[in-house]
Amino acid sequence: xxxxxxxxxxxxxxxxxxxxxxxxxxxxxxxxxxxxxxxxxxxxxxxxxxxxxxxxxxxxxxxxxxxxxxxxxxxxxxxxxxxxxxxxxxxxxxxxxxxxxxxxxxxxxxxxxxxxxxxxxxxxxxxxxxxxxxxxxxxxxxxxxxxxxxxxxxxxxxxxxxxxxxxxxxxxxxxxxxxxxxxxxxxxxxxxxxxxxxxxxxxxxxxxxxxxxxxxxxxxxxxxxxxxxxxxxxxxxxxxxxxxxxxxxxxxxxxxxxxxxxxxxxxxxxxxxxxxxxxxxxxxxxxxxxxxxxxxxxxxxxxxxxxxxxxxxxxxxxxxxxxxxxxxxxxxxxxxxxxxxxxxxxxxxxxxxxxxxxxxxxxxxxxxxxxxxxxxxxxxxxxxxxxxxxxxxxxxxxxxxxxxxxxxxxxxxxxxxxxxxxxxxxxxxxxxxxxxxxxxxxxxxxxxxxxxxxxxxxxxxxxxxxxxxxxxxxxxxxxxxxxxxxxxxxxxxxxxxxxxxxxxxxxxxxxxxxxxxxxxxxxxxxxxxxxxxxxxxxxxxxxxxxxxxxxxxxxxxxxxxxxxxxxxxxxxxxxxxxxxxxxxxxxxxxxxxxxxxxxxxxxxxxxxxxxxxxxxxxxxxxxxxxxxxxxxxxxxxxxxxxxxxxxxxxxxxxxxxxxxxxxxxxxxxxxxxxxxxxxxxxxxxxxxxxxxxxxxxxxxxxxxxxxxxxxxxxxxxxxxxxxxxxxxxxxxxxxxxxxxxxxxxxxxxxxxxxxxxxxxxxxx
Length: 764
Ligand SMILES: Nc1nc2c(c(=O)[nH]1)N[C@H]1C(S)=C(S)[C@@H](COP(=O)(O)OP(=O)(O)OC[C@H]3O[C@@H](n4cnc5c(=O)[nH]c(N)nc54)[C@H](O)[C@@H]3O)O[C@H]1N2
Ligand SMILES: Nc1nc2c(c(=O)[nH]1)N[C@H]1C(S)=C(S)[C@@H](COP(=O)(O)OP(=O)(O)OC[C@H]3O[C@@H](n4cnc5c(=O)[nH]c(N)nc54)[C@H](O)[C@@H]3O)O[C@H]1N2
Ligand SMILES: [Mo]
Fold this sequence. Notes:
single chain; 17% strand; 32 helices; 6-stranded mixed barrel; binds ligand MGD; binds molybdenum atom; alpha/beta
C-alpha cells in the first residue's frame, strides 16, 4: 500500500542530534565568511564558485537568486555584492550533481517522501523532464514535446478554464512572468495565485489603499539619510543580510535604529561588515539603539501607544504633527483622531507587552525626528490583522509628514528576488481592469474580468474538486502553504500537477493523479536561444529594474528556460485559437520586453533602458508625495487592536526561518545566530512558561492547535528555553505549517496567519 498523502506532505518526524549554545551577540563578520566558503566548497566546483562570486549582483552580472534587497546604484563592492546567504543560494542552485531517469528509477515517490527536505534538496539539480503516470510508483523520463502535449490535453479537456490553477513563485523573471500571465489570460482564466499571497500581500493591500501604490516608497539613498529607521517584524541578518550595510551607513551618518521584534535577533543587535577589513578586526557596529521586545502580534497596540503619546504632546505644544502636510496631502485626519481618542494608552502598552522604560526611549526618537523610515517583513504581514499593522504604521508616518521626502517613508522588505516584478508585469489573480484593457487592446482577446483564486482559495477549490489541474512556475507549493494535511488532499484531488523547478522538492511527491516535473535553467546559467545568449530582467524591493544574465554552462542539455517552457505550453494548448505567435518569443526575449513596454506602465523603451548597467527606477508616486488613491490624497485609517485571547495553557506561535534555509529549501541544519545546531524540530519557549508547565531543556513535546473546533497536530519537537516574551513561542517553517489553519488569514489580503498560530504544548 502506498503512503498516505499527509505522510508524504509532512517532513519526517525523526530527530537528529540537537546541540544548543548561547546565541551570539554579533552577526556576519568572520563567521559568515567561513560559512560561505564551507558551503561553496561543499556543493560547487571551484571554478564555478569563483566565476559566480565575481559576477553576483555586479552591473552586467546576474541577480542573486536569494532575496530582493537592492544593489547600490553607484559603487559596488569589488568582492562582489554578496552575503553569506547569497552564496548559499547560488551554491544550492549551481550544485555540480544532477538527477534524472536513473535516480527516479531507483527511488520511488514513496521512498523519496521519507527523505528530509534537506536531503531532497541536496540530491542534485533536476536534469530532464519526468512524468508520473496514473497509479505509478516511480517518475519516468518523457520528451519535452510529449510533456507539453499532456499539459495541453489536460487543459483542453476541462469544462471551464477556471478549473486550472497557475501558481508562480517569486524567482521567475519579468519576461517569463509576463508571458505566463498572458498565456493564462488568453487560455481564459485569472487563476494566478502566487507566493506574494503568502508573503507581502497585506503590505500591497494596505499601501495601495492608504498611499496609492502597493510598493515601498524609499530608495537606498533614503535609508542612508534617515534620522530614524524602525525595523519591525524582520530578521535582516538572515533574510536580507545586505540591508545591514545600509543600516550601518545610516548610523555612520548619525541615524538611529529602533528594532521591534519578539526575538533579540543577532543582526538587530550588532553587525560586522564582511567587506570592511578594519571592522572585521575591531568588532562590529551596534545596530539597534532601542530594542523593543514586543509580544507576538502586539504591533498595532505598540504603534497606537506611540500615536496616543504623539497626540498628547501635540495637544500640549502644537509642534509635533506636520500640519502643513496633513492639511495638503492627507484625507480623513479628523475621523482618525476621534477614533484614536477612544483608546487608552496604558491598555495599549500592556497589550504590546513592552515596558514603559523601553517605550519611552523609542517614543523620544519618534517625537524628536521627522525623517523616519519604517522597514518590515513577515513579522507584520502574516497575521489576521496584518493589513491593520501596516496601515497603523502609515498613520504614524502621515502624522509626522514622513513620506514623499528624502530620508523618510515606507520600506516593506520583499522576499523572493523578483516577487515584486512578477506582480508589476501581471501575475495577479485580481489585476486591475485597466491592465486587462491594455492586454485586450494589444492582443485582441478579452481577458476574463473575474477575479481568480488566491493561494488559499486555490487550495479550497482543489480540495472541493472545483479545480483539477495545478501548474506551478517555480516554488514548492505543498510545503509553503498552510494546513499541510488539508492541502495535501487538495493536491491529490487534481487530475494533473505540474512543477517547473530547478530542484527536487516535496511538491513533486504530493501529486495529482498524474504529475510532471519540468526542469529549468536557473539564474546562474547561460540561456542560449536562436538569436544568442539571452538577458532577462528583475525588479528589486525598491522598484529598480535591472538585467540578469547567467555565467555558467547549464547543468544539463535537457533544461529549458522558463520562457521556453511557457511558450511550449501555450503552443500546445491554444495554438489553434491564439492571436499570438507563441514560439517567436522564446527565440528573442527582446520581443517580450517590447510587449511589456506597450502594456505595463513605466516600461517605455524597456530594451534601451535595460542596457544601463545599474538599471532604471519605475515610477513611484508615494516617493514624490503624489498619492494615487481615490481622493488623490494619503489616507489615514482606523485600525482595531486584535481580539484573540489565549485560553488555559495556550501559547501564540510564530513560524520563522532559520539561518540555514531559503523558504522551503533547507541549506543546512544549523541556526547559528540563535545558537541551534543540527536540528530543526525545536520549539523556542520563554523559560518561565517552561517552568510553569514543568518542561525541561530539550524535552520532547507534541504541538496542537485548535481552530474553529478543528484540532491539528505536529509531533516531536524539542523544547529550547529562549529570550522570548511570555506566552509566545517560535518554530521553524515548514515543519509546523500543518498547524496553520487554512481559514486563519489576513482580512482583505488573505495572507495565511502563520505568525499567529494559537497552540498548546503537550509533553509526551
Ligand atoms: N536566507 C534567506 N533569505 C530570505 C528568505 C529565506 O528563507 N532565507 N526568504 C525570503 C522571503 S520569501 C521573505 S518573505 C523574507 C522573509 O524575511 P523575514 O520576514 O525576516 O523572515 P521570518 O523568518 O519570517 O522572520 C520574521 C521576523 O519577524 C519576527 N516576528 C514574528 N512575529 C512578529 C510580530 O508579531 N511582531 C513583530 N514585530 N515581529 C514578529 C520574528 O521574530 C522574525 O525575526 O526573506 C527573504 N530572504
Ligand atoms: N508557516 C509559514 N509558511 C510560509 C511562510 C512563513 O513564514 N511561515 N512564508 C511564506 C512566504 S513569505 C513565501 S514567499 C512562501 C514561499 O513559497 P515558494 O516560493 O513556493 O517556495 P520556495 O521554497 O521559495 O520554492 C523553492 C523551490 O523553487 C524552485 N526554484 C528555485 N529556483 C528556481 C528558478 O529559478 N526557477 C524555477 N522554476 N524554480 C526554481 C526549486 O525547485 C525549489 O525547490 O512560503 C510561505 N509559507
Ligand atoms: Mo516571501
